[in-house]
Amino acid sequence: MKAAVYQGKEQIIVQNVPEPVLEAGEVLLQIEACSVCGTDLRTYRHGDAKITPPRILGHEFCGRVIESRAPDLKNVKVGDRVVVYIVILHGNDVYIEMGRANLTSHRTTISYHHDGAFAPLMKVPAAAVAQGNIFPVTTEISSRDMSISEPLGCVMNAHSRLGVGLKDTVAVIGAGPIGIMHALVSRLQGAQKVYVLDVNAERLKMAAQFDIDGTVLVTPDGSHREKIKELTGGLGTSVTIAAVSSAAAQNDALEIAAKAGRINFFAGLPKSAPVAPLNVNHIHYKELEISGSYSEKKSDFRAAVALIESGRFPADKIVTHTLPIERITEAFTLMESGEALKVCIIPGSV
Ligand SMILES: [Zn+2]
């Protein structure tokens, strides 16, 4: 079969690889769609210490069960269309016990430690099958649109701690697909106002097509901070989400947050430069609450699947481009230029 294989930095090669052979407990999927994640792009450009090449990447996927060697599998059967929670647990620890399995170090992840879905066929590891990580898709929503269940679950994880509601005004810094998802989830949760900020005017034009209250261009003179103050009656935003890997964005979040505001640092900084100059006095004087967010819990993934299936989430507008697997590296350029929100890869037939 023809798969996109990560062979090292700047090397994702579309090549023939043997079809996966099922072992006891495993399930074989025919992949119908696999969206490209910002982390796939980062791995392609910079490598990733957790990934040893050769590895088939791709973890935002939807496919059909075509074979099963898991006789005890109850909720799915051959022929079903499914999405998969990609975190696989091995053993137990205090984080798993407290319901924060995303934080455990006793985990492996599909597309990091097991081959992913930039291929026509992918096998679901036995442990993932046994842990109930396969979720049947119960609507007619396309596989292309269902593929963003995974990133939406990561967004849900952040929101499970932000608790956005009717009293909130929200600013999302970063108008990429993740930023837009944060804005839309905030809206669905009842936020009064939702604003999206970005340095890229083209991205803001795309963001403006969604159900938000306004966009603000981030400029070097800092006028975007004043703009947010103006838009919020001088208060700043009660919830501020930094959805871009940038220290300046994190500092902007501290600056534009209202007193007693909640902030989420959704994106990490590059591992080579994780120390940021932040005006931490804002945390002190404004009594800010800052949370981080990494990966997702199974409950987040389940909620994301349900939200897309409900038809109340415009997944079809978030996936802006579809490419055949042969053109996968074009996805990275489309993402970097800001021309695309989500790019979805269609692996094609075996
Ligand atoms: Zn992802």
What would a concise description of this structure say?
It contains 13 helices and 18 strands. By secondary structure, it is an alpha/beta fold. It has two domains: 2-139 and 311-346, Alpha-Beta Complex (Quinone Oxidoreductase, Chain A, domain 1); 157-292, Rossmann fold.
Q: Could you characterize the architecture of this molecule?
A:
This protein has 350 residues and is of the alpha/beta class. It has two domains: 2-139 and 311-346, Medium-chain alcohol dehydrogenases, catalytic domain (Quinone Oxidoreductase, Chain A, domain 1); 157-292, Rossmann fold. Helix content is 30%, strand content 27%. The protein has helices spanning 38-46, 94-97, 126-130, 143-146, 149-162, 177-188, 201-207, 223-231, 247-256, 281-285, 298-310, 315-318, 328-337, and strands at 2-8, 11-16, 27-35, 55-56, 60-68, 81-84, 87-89, 107-109, 121-124, 134-136, 169-173, 193-198, 214-217, 237-242, 257-265, 289-292, 319-324, 342-346. The strands form four sheets. Strands 3, 5, 6, 9, 10, 17 and 18 form a seven-stranded mixed β-sheet that branches. It starts with a strand and ends with a strand. The structure holds zinc ion.
Helix tally equals 13
Query: Mind summarizing the main beta sheet?
Result: 7 strands, mixed
> How many structural domains are formed by the residues?
2
N→C terminal distance: 5 Å
**Can you tell me the CATH class of the largest domain?**
Alpha Beta
Name the quaternary structure. Answer: single chain
Write down the CATH topology of the largest domain: Quinone Oxidoreductase, Chain A, domain 1
Named at the architecture level, the CATH assignment of the largest domain is Alpha-Beta Complex
**Which structural class should the secondary elements be placed in?**
alpha/beta
